[in-house]
Amino acid sequence: MNALDWIVLLGTMLGIAAYGTWATRRTNGLNTYLKGNHSTGWFTIGVSVAATQASTITYLSLPGQAYENGIAFIQNYFGLPLALVIVCAVFLPIYRRLGVYTAYEYLGKRFDTKTRLLGACIFLLQRGVQGGITIYAPSIILCTVLGWRLDLTILFTGLLVIVYTVTGGSAAVSLTQKWQMAVIFGGMITAFVTLLVKLPPDAAYIAGAMGKLQAVDFDLNFDKRYTFWSGLLGGLFLSLSYFGTDQSQVQRYIGGAALREGRLGLMFNAVFKIPMQFFIVMLGALLFVFYQFQPNTPVFFNRTEWQRHAEGPQGAVLKAIEVKHARLHGEKQEKIRAWVAVRESGDAAAEAKAKAELTAAQKASDAVRKEAREALLKIDPRAKVKDSDYVFITFILSQLPHGAIGLLIAVMFASALSSKAGELNALGTASTIDLWRVFRPQSAPDETQNVKIAKWFTAFWGLFAIGFALFASFAENLIEALNIIASIFYPIVLGLFVVAFFCKWVRGTAVFLAALSALGVIAALYFVGQADPTRNIGYLWYNPIGCAVCVAVSIALQAVFNLRSGPPAGAAPASA
Amino acid sequence: MPSTPDQDPAQEPPDVPGFRSWRAVYVFVLLAFAAMVAALAVFTRYYA
């Protein structure tokens, strides 16, 4: 990075944060602080929903994943449009009509305080941990390739987002997210156009022939990771959980001028999310083609990690693998050119033969990449061998002109800030509304104090995220454990809401006990899968199973034991 | 101070040209989704 890149990077990041802080500095009312301006339109809401969902991982890691495994990942988003229609038709009108600040406040109105606290605590646990990872994950990648200090990068990112989120609350989050998304789109389109210019004319055909363009797979085999069916069903429940019950999303669309604005904002995402993700995975698939024609395509894209070991006492092994990879890469180039020439000739038999040879060459190349990762692990069992996260950033740094490099690094930080801001805003809100006001009900009418408390909670969660990110490298096992706990808990929250919306006769105690039962079932499924990998099911399936168990047990408990734990006195009816 | 609930949110029209009701908007979104899946399936076959 040169001076121009730094000007672009710091100018966009600091400029947007300063503008967001300045424009929302007079936010005093609790409603505006927690839900945003009353004049917020559907486009701002739609962009805010998209910006909160897409973190840096989306822009940095997804192209690398498509480079490695093709564009089949797009199927994970197939459940999203259906889920958003359900949220629009069922969830959102009820939230708006009851005038709640959080999704869990609705659980309290519909069931009881213990169910509300269960939902809120699951959210705080999951998002609190995720908040640290949202900062840590992109920082570790950018610091590795750019040679920056990890602790300073985490502190800069974390403190910047805390300043404008604490100052302006939800209004600042929506305002900055709109400009950050403009930077993200500008940067990604710049990278895509640069890549297209550098590609051979048959790039899409080459990607297709090498198995990178299989977007849809209708196979009913449950062992396959990405299929139309797992994406549609698992994705539907996952998206319902996320968009319908996760406060970081709910907070983005319950505000606004009217119900119409929230609905249109969600429908905007329902229509444009799949094309947007398609654009990102296609970038990865075309990066794969680009690197097929580069003379020095690395066998391992995390060059810092590779060089560190290549210069060590066992470096000869790695250098031998590099030589082998370079030879196979050259041979593969020849096979690609041969296949392109035969394809244009129209000789079907010759084309099939050339394609088979090309596939064999690709398998040989993949085997060497696998060998490289295994060799690294053998040298250092703690080596970071997942290098797909480094594919896109390697392209950015080596192929883009100065200025554009700064813009693309700004894309990575903008996505981290926009996602983090949505999370912090939601954590501060849920802590204030669902914990502090529940345990200090006498303070609820004091609006000024409520805003002050919300600001303190937002700052606390921001500092918690920074602290977690700073120590994350020392506690990777802890992160994994907490992520597992969160993914086990998450489907249960959806179950609570499905019962709340669709099973109007079920009361609080029945659904609370059912949620704990469903939690036991999901935990058992997880541990059985860990003990016996042949019985392991994909975590996407936890969502429909956990939700179904929660609903079924709720209904059964209510019917058999006729438990009575109605809504608190004065609660509004829950149905639309 | 509690936030102000909307008066009758379910009755708000979509106010989008060409759509008289929210049901029509949802049908459009689902048809757009089906069209995207169909286009991706054709894309997959074409480049296979």
What would you say this structure looks like, in words?
The complex is a heterodimer of chains A (576) and B (48). Chain A is built from 21 helices and no strands. Chain A is an all-alpha fold. Residues 568-576 of chain A have low confidence and may be disordered. By secondary structure, chain B is an all-alpha fold. Helix content of chain B is 54%, strand content 0%. Chain B contains one helix and no strands. Chain B has one helix at 22-47. The model of chain B has no long low-confidence stretch (mean pLDDT 82). Classes of the chains: A mainly alpha (576), B mainly alpha (48). The A-B interface holds A 30-31, 35, 74, 78, 81-82, 84-85, 88-89, 93, 96-101, 204-205, 207-209, 213-218, 228, 258-260, 263-264, 267, 270-271, 274-275, 278, 445, 447, 576 and B 1-6, 9-10, 12-16, 22, 25-26, 29-30, 32-33, 36-37, 40-41, 43-44, 46-48.
What is the oligomeric state here? heterodimer
Main β-sheet description of chain A: none
Q: Please name the fourth-level CATH homologous superfamily of the largest domain in chain A.
A: Sodium/glucose cotransporter
Distance between the termini of chain B: 60 Å
N-to-C SSE series of chain B?
Answer: H
**CATH structural fold name of the largest domain in chain A:** Sodium/glucose cotransporter
What fraction of the residues of chain A are assigned to beta strands by DSSP?
under 5%
Largest sheet of chain B: none
What is the tally of helical segments of chain A?
Answer: 21
Rounded mean pLDDT score of chain B? 82
Low-confidence stretches of chain B: none
Q: Estimate the helix proportion of chain A, in percent.
A: over 70%
Number of continuous helical runs of chain B: 1
Share of residues in strands of chain B: under 5%
- So what's the overall shape of chain A? globular
Average pLDDT, all residues of chain A: 86
SSE ordering of chain A: HHHHHHHHHHHHHHHHHHHHH
Give me the Rg of chain A, rounded: 25 Å
